[in-house]
């Protein structure tokens, strides 16, 4: 099969190579991938920027989420059949969705929502699960509560705004002025142009901040949070508590604790909590998101769709930080489109 492969960390960009179709385990299905999505984690992983959390043997096929059709099922697979159209986010130690096939555990996939195509479905798993786990599982947003979402026009922001509105929140979000119409159309109540306005000077008493930026922006979140509120970051630094829950060795946890001393101080000063989230694959939660998509509560937002052969350009565009919604890679060429159901 064709796949986008890197042979070494920090390789400039992946190369398209012929590699063997992966073997499946008894709980796995083999999926012929129709589309996959680009996520900022792809470049971070390639560059070795996440080695404290994730390290891979080389050569490595890139890519974390996908939509496609099951072609083989393992002997213990009970929930899916050959021919099912599915979407999913693979476990972090089994990545490789920028390829024609992926082997994936049946617990990490769900049936593709029927009202969207494969490219739209591929845009959802990683950002949908991250947003759902942040807003629903950790924040446990109740109707009428206020949440600030950083980067409302990005892959995460476009889905997070819609989930937060579904949960009944009042949503403030940062974006450039170009994307005000987009975030308004997704339901945002208070768009803020981050190029001209510091959100910390115009917002106060927020129940939650969903930080997708890290650094000084994350520290500023504590200026607007209520006592008892929650700041959740997916782009800041993991702290000691996260390291313990994630099962990282003690020396790494201590290193996390030292690196996040400022955040611990801010937690104490504001009586708000700081959580770093590293999202987890979940077929069950993709099923929930699928129902919200079929009910037209969540709509995928796609910036562009490009063939696998253009993976390097797609990754560079993601790295530019300017994508509006998701960038999608298509695996099948036109002559294979009849495999779609
Ligand atoms: N920990 C986890 O499990 C996890 C999971 C998913 C993602 N992440 C991380 O979350 C971050 C966001 O991911 P993403 O997929 O949303 O990225 P993305 O799609 O690449 O974000 C692009 C968007 O960011 C906006 N943006 C750029 N600079 C901004 C600023 N200073 N303030 C506000 N918005 C700004 C841009 O809007 P304009 O063009 O309007 O400027 C653009 O629409 C990444 O660092 C990613 O690695 C972590």
UniProtKB/TrEMBL annotation:
It comes from the Bacteria. CDD domains: MDR_like_2. Pfam families: ADH_N (PF08240), ADH_zinc_N_2 (PF13602). Gene3D superfamilies: Medium-chain alcohol dehydrogenases, catalytic domain, NAD(P)-binding Rossmann-like Domain. This is NADP-dependent oxidoreductase. Residues 10-329 form the Enoyl reductase (ER) domain.
């Amino acid at each position: 099969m064709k796949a986008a492969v890197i042979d070494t960390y920090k390789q400039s960009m992946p190369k398209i190579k012929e590699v063997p179709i992966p073997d499946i385990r008894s709980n796995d299905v083999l999926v012929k991938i129709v589309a996959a999505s680009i996520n900022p984690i792809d470049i971070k992983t390639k560059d070795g920027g996440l080695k404290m959390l994730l390290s891979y043997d080389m050569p490595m096929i890139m890519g974390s989420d996908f939509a496609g059709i099951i072609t083989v099922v393992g002997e213990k697979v009970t929930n899916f059949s050959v021919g099912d159209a599915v979407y999913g986010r693979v476990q972090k130690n089994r990545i490789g969705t920028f390829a024609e096939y992926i082997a994936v555990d049946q617990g990490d996939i769900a049936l593709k929502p029927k009202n969207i195509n494969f490219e739209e479905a591929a845009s959802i798993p990683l950002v949908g699960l991250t947003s759902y786990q942040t807003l629903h599982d950790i924040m446990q947003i109740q109707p009428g509560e206020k949440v600030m979402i950083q980067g409302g026009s990005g892959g995460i922001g476009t889905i997070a705004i819609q989930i937060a509105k579904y949960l009944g929140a009042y949503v403030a979000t940062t974006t450039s002025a170009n994307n005000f119409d987009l975030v308004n159309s997704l339901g945002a109540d208070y768009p803020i142009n981050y190029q001209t306005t510091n959100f910390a000077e115009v917002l106060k008493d927020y129940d939650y901040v969903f930080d997708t930026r890290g650094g000084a922006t994350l520290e500023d979140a504590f200026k607007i949070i209520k006592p008892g509120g929650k700041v959740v970051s997916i782009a800041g630094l993991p702290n000691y508590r996260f390291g313990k829950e994630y099962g990282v060795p003690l020396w790494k946890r201590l290193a996390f604790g030292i690196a996040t001393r400022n955040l611990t101080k801010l937690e104490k000063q504001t009586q708000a909590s700081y959580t770093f989230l590293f999202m987890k694959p979940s077929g069950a939660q993709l099923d929930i998101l699928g129902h919200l998509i079929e009910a037209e509560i969540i709509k995928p937002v796609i910036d562009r769709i490009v063939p696998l052969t253009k993976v390097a350009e797609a990754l560079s565009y993601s790295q530019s930080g300017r994508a509006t919604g998701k960038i999608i890679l298509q695996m099948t060429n036109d002559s294979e489109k009849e495999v779609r159901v």
